[in-house]
Specification:
About 85% of the residues lie in helices and about 0% in strands. It is mainly α and about 140 residues long. It has one domain. Its cofactor is heme b.
Amino acid sequence: MPWLKLLHIAALVVWCGSLLYLPALLNHALVLRKDAGFAQGTPPMPRYFYNTVATPAALLAIGSGTLLFLLHGLMGGWLILKLGAVVAMVAAHGLFGWLILRLEMGIFSGVKLATLAGLIVALLGILGVLGVVLAKPLEWG
């Protein structure tokens, strides 16, 4: 089923790119909101991007990865490490969604620091997945 693996990789690339782009969108929305005063709400782009690009890509990547695991019976120590890295990516994804909600509610304190923390967690997860996948041919058992 090479099409399933291709779908998984494509969805993962889009999701990883989204996790790297969302912090920039959040910081931009924060700057716009602070500069605009009380007359303007939070720009809709972070929520739109989160709902229409990042979340569907995440669900597709996780769903297709689960199907690959179930259909091919993949097991090994590398899988546990990869799933741990995916958990970090999911945590960053959830944090970005929570930060979007905070911005929409007008709560700006701590958003910049939390965005940086989310970016670091996302980067660790992305690099973890990449490292484990590239090291997998070493047959970790």
